[in-house]
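So, can you check these tokens?
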Amino acid sequence: MSALPLRGPAVFALMLAVALLCRWMAFVPAVIDTDEGLYMLQAREWLRGNWPFIAVWDMHPPGAPALIALAMAVLGESIRSVRLLGALCVAVTGSALDGLVRAAGGAPALALTAGLAYVVLTPTLTGLATNTEILFAPFVVGALAFAARLAARALDRAAAPRIRDLVPIGLLIGCGLVIKQVVVFEGCFAFALAVLLPWWRGVLDWRRVAAMAAAYAVLCATPILLLGLTYLLMGEFATLWDALVLAPLRYGFSRLSPGVAAWVVTAELLTLAAPLLLAVVATLRPLPEHRRLLVLGWSWFAVAALGVIAPGMFFRHYFLMLLPPLGLLAALGAWRLAAMLRPERVRPAVLVLLVLLALDAWRMDAPARMLDGRGLYEPDPVRRVAAALRQAVPPGSPVFMLNYHAVVLVLAEMNVTTRFAFPAQLSGRFFRTLPVDADTELARVLDSAPAAIIIDRGWLHTLRPEAIARVEETIAARYDLAASIAEQRGPVEIWRRRDLGD
């Protein structure tokens, strides 16, 4: 591998090829993670001139729908466009991780292995979806690559960083924060590498550190401040403030209990057992030239874990934050293990370990999808629901999604009936997150007589009983069953307003 003098565009081309190879299953199903559909709905409305939070509400910053809107504008409003965006982000992250390891003093072959390890790990933990963790990773890893270069200069040459050196780091972290707030932890880590480590090395005094901290804070805040200014000029700053500040605080009251959280964390770490074992190998039998990278990798892993823990809910895609540092640690372990097992043929052995790592990650997701067959040799229920909805009501009709995937509204070209389009918030257990009374808003939606109501019978147990009762009362009075599509846990029903006729 080290015989390949790959740099810049060549590294990215390799990362993209491997990403597409490992992630081809992402282009099959309409839904991998339901959050992605909400971002697509926000993106579609944005392309129509309707801004996030005003048209479609969420408690994440609008960076994810912004990137998805860009992909949809360039490539078309389709699932494939969004999944291709995910593959591109994975390839950029892998390339940035390659640069980070090189900047920290790692050999080019090791750097390439780290980037590839990240890429091949992403099919697990619902990472095939173009979710926030996939989207902000390029910004975070890119910022850390710049920071690692400054840290290496301070350690090796006693060179002090300058304020202008912080510009790419701060702006990249700022872009990441516009995608998800938890980037703040890795943003602090980037500052620690770029400034606090040189201060500890003795090449900066505390006054300079304070000035650089202030400059860094401004740089990180610049994207979100520009966003806030935009909403202020639109007269919607209060809407933005509630969504990005108050709603996450309300969401925090729904944290999992420590006992349940422990089970979830254990399960997800078992999913990552293979790269973690390689990380342990690298740590227990370290090569002298790997010690600095080991410290960097484990420190980064611990900081990323804070981002996983902070929301208190532990959804699977949160653990994707661990993959960039784990890719670095797994690469160190792969080279150490190869040197122990096949010292005469280290490079081919590392390649074999990478392939095994890829197969292990791929088997976590692919076999179940292949056996289920949806989108392969069986119809995709989500696409069937979208097709049946198009037949039931005209395009552009207002449709209320009680508890199914928001992406159906995009696929069927239907309009929302409420800006609170995510079912788990309006009808489900996260209703306290909303800035309005959920029952009042639900009553308003039903009283507005949407053209159709979609109900997933298999997941009614996740909804509030009062929401179910109100909807059942409404469909009994004003709606007829237009279609019923089999889903994994039960039928998905499309109820058409009775006065629409045929």
Observations:
- The longest strand covers residues 479-486.
- Strands lie at 398-401, 415-416, 452-456, 479-486, 491-497.
